[in-house]
Amino acid sequence: MQATILDLRYKMKDVLSALDRRESVHILYHGKEKGIIFPSNKKTAKVANHPFCGSVPNSRKSVESVMEGLRGGRYRDI
After folding, report:
1. 3-state class (DSSP) for residue 26
2. What is the C-alpha to C-alpha distance for residues 2 and 22, in angstroms, rounded to an integer?
3. How many CB atoms lie within 10 A of CB 25?
4. Backbone angles phi, psi at 26, to 5 degrees
5. Which in 28, 38, 42, 75 has the greatest CB count within 10 A?
6. Are 66 and 55 in contact (CB under 8 A)?
7. For residues 18 and 1, is the Cβ–Cβ distance under 8 A?
8. Is pTM, for the whole model, over 0.85?
9. DSSP H stretches of helix in the chain
10. For 35-72, how does the pLDDT look when each residue is reduced to its tens digit (9 = 90+)?
11. What does the DSSP 8-state code read for residue 47?
12. Smallest Cα–Cα separation from 70: which of 51, 54, 46?
């Protein structure tokens, strides 16, 4: 996809949609290419994969103990 500076300003949704489709976006300034935006190679994390979300309904652990395990302590207990 090619996008001008004005496209970046007023049509950012279209630019982000192109990146979601794994297309690179060529940035034009006064008709000349100034740069290229490439889609990220990182996989996006889903909320459902977080250890606390979608926790097992029959779990015997309390919410407080699960949260304490996720957060960890402020100081190391000796």
Report:
1. strand
2. 14
3. 19
4. -90, 125
5. 28
6. yes
7. yes
8. no
9. 5-10, 12-20, 63-71
10. 999 998 876 666 666 666 655 566 677 777 777 777 77
11. G
12. 51
